[in-house]
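Dear support,

I submitted the protein below through the web form. The confirmation email said the job was done, but the results page showed an empty box. After a refresh the structure appeared. I'm attaching both so you can tell me whether what I see now is the final result or a partial one.
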Amino acid sequence: MGVTQDWAAEPGAAERARSLLAAAWSCTVTADGAREEYAGAHTVTGDGRVLLDVPEDSALFAAVLCAPRGEPTAVLEFADAAPVPVRRRIRARLWLAGRLSRRGARLLFQPTRVVLRRPSGAVLIDPAEYAAARPDPLATAEAQLLTHLADSHPDAVERLTRLVRPESLHAVTRVAPLAVDRHGLTLRIERTRAHGDVRLAFHTPADDVSQLTERLHALLAQAGAACPRALQRYRADGDR
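What the results page shows now:
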């Protein structure tokens, strides 16, 4: 049984891709048969190109030096993992295909193909739209915000379920904050054998953490005005 809540305003695919890239700490790079994983080695330019700080004796650096034009094709892969432990923690994956070139002691990656895969399916993003998009202003703070909400304010998370349709909470075993962006908060509704996500929209977008705090307080006030109901945590028919 999936969650039946309607999905409200949310970032577009290009903005999601740029947000994922801005917040990611590690990536996998495949070029000329070499596949290497790096942590804390990339930065992103304003137009979405990726600068890689890799050892000069790495296979990746060698692939660039040995390529006929010094610009081999490459694929960069980034994973978006929920900061709060939940079932199926990977929220999305981003693949960038393009060319690598040397920029001094670093490598510069120019994407020519951008694919974002989420549970709802894969989306091919126009490279120009990707380059023009900007990361969500909360992207780099999201992990800290969600872990604080889950660890320090579980009562607030439960109160927010008053804004969720009762049928979406059937046989719930756990509710956790899954994601937040300037448009809204997403809750993960877990059951014994299934799960689903519910999005709670903010009344207006939040451009920074202080505005996010106000938007969350507004949601909690709305939940406080709703009819109180206790979460019915129990096994659904057929669950063991």
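Response: this is the final, complete result; the empty box was a page-load delay. The chain is about 25% helix and 35% strand.
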